[in-house]
Amino acid sequence: MSEADGLRQRRPLRPQVVTDDDGQAPEAKDGSSFSGRVFRVTFLMLAVSLTVPLLGAMMLLESPIDPQPLSFKEPPLLLGVLHPNTKLRQAERLFENQLIGPESIAHIGGEVKLLLSSETPIEGKKMSFVNDLTVTQDGRKIYFTDSSSKWQRRDYLLLVMEGTDDGRLLEYDTVTREVKVLLDQLRFPNGVQLSPAEDFVLVAETTMARIRRVYVSGLMKGGADLFVENMPGFPDNIRPSSFGGYWVGMSTIRPNPGFSMLDFLSERPWIKRMIFKLFSQETVMKFVPRYSLVLELSDSGAFRRSLHDPDGLVAAYVSEVHEHDGHLYLGSFRSPFLCRLSLQAV
Fold first, then answer.
1. Would you say the C-alpha torsion 242, 246, 252, 254 has a positive or negative sign?
2. What is the pLDDT of residue 25?
3. Superfamily, domain 80-105+118-342
4. Who's near 142: CB < 8 A, 6+ residues apart?
5. What is the DSSP letter of 220?
6. Rounded to whole angstroms, what are the CA distances from 332 to 135, 181, 319, 336?
7. Which of 81, 115, 158, 169 is at 20 to 30 A from 121, Cα to Cα?
8. What angle do CA 64, 69, 71 make, to 5 degrees?
9. How far apart are CA 265 and CA 274, in angstroms?
10. Does the CA dihedral 188-154-173-106 come out positive or negative?
11. What is the chain's mean pLDDT, rounded?
């Protein structure tokens, strides 16, 4: 063998290029198409398996609520005295994990006595959700709210979402033992507070984000008007302020700028029905932003100052603000603690 023949035999083989025209290409192409079809069919079957039960549930299951559309004004801008801050985060927690939903705070003493049974009908309706009360200084008159004759306390979220208007403000005379309905057709009447002069009573109408005023003595006795409307949140309890005004606790706000879920749903009752067909109250509460807001109102209802805890990191689900000895004590309908905030710090 010559040297030239040896070099020709040792020449490396050139790689072969497989093109669409080669015999194996159609197999690869068909395999890829087959995999794609399998994926699409699997995805479609999965979508159908999830969608059909969901549609069936929406059609067949009954909703526990029958909401009607409600209209709200655009929430007030969080500017000026309403500008967000973190002042509530300076509060200290008390009795953590030793309490369950300490909603209200009061100084009490003496014996406990039943004054009025919830089984006693008041103008044809039994009391189902007795909520808050305020008492005259002489102890004769007690003003209290019955938030609903349909829903009970454990159903508070259903009451808010349905917008039921069967709440009442009542007056109980401890001498005559008579009960009067001062105001009815209220949507979740909640906190109630006498004025310092005891000439009117304030009642928080939580679902409507406002506070009503009912005159109980003087020339305007029997009359009623709006004390504060279109609040930046949904008011709970009302308590006196040492400045002559009132403290109002709110565990849910109506952010502006921002998106208020409850405002959005208020005009879309069909979405509310669907939500509560599929989810429990406890599940829905997990999607409610934990933004705590405390407002101090003047004696005329103007916003005097605001204390915030965005995301409820320290003071969560604030339902009441009780002022005592230079401090604010913050109650909560869900948190397992009280909070105490020094007024000098804010």
1. negative
2. 47
3. TolB, C-terminal domain (2.120.10.30)
4. 115, 133, 134, 135, 136, 171, 172, 174
5. T
6. 22, 28, 5, 8
7. 158
8. 140
9. 11
10. negative
11. 88
The residue behind tokens 């029997």 is 222
Residues 139-177 have pLDDT tens digits of: 999 999 999 999 999 999 999 999 999 999 999 999 999
Q: Is 240 helix (H, G, I), strand (E, B) or coil?
A: strand
- Name the residue with higher pLDDT: 120 or 131: 131
Write a three-state SS string for 120-159.
CCECCECCCCEEEEEECCCCCEEEEEECCCCCCHHHHHHH
Tokens 């002069």 -> residue? 197
Which of 45-54, 148-157, 202-211 has the highest average model confidence (pLDDT)? 202-211
264-289 burial by CB neighbour count: b if 16+ within 10 A, else e?
ebbeebeebbbbbbeeeeeebeeeee
Cβ atoms 165, 122 nearer than 8 A: no
CB 273 within 8 A of CB 78: no
E strand or H helix at 101: none
The DSSP bridge partners found for residue 189 are: 205
For 30, left (φ over 0), alpha (ψ -120 to 50), or beta? alpha
Q: Are 264 and 69 in contact (CB under 8 A)?
A: no
What are the pLDDT digits (tens) for 235-248? Answer: 999 999 999 999 99
DSSP string, 258-291: S--HHHHHHT-HHHHHHHHHH--HHHHHTTS---
State how far the Cα of 168 lies from the Cα of 126, in Å rounded to an integer: 11
Residue 32 one-letter amino acid: S
Letter for the amino acid at 47?
A
Residue 284, token pair as written in the block: 């829905």
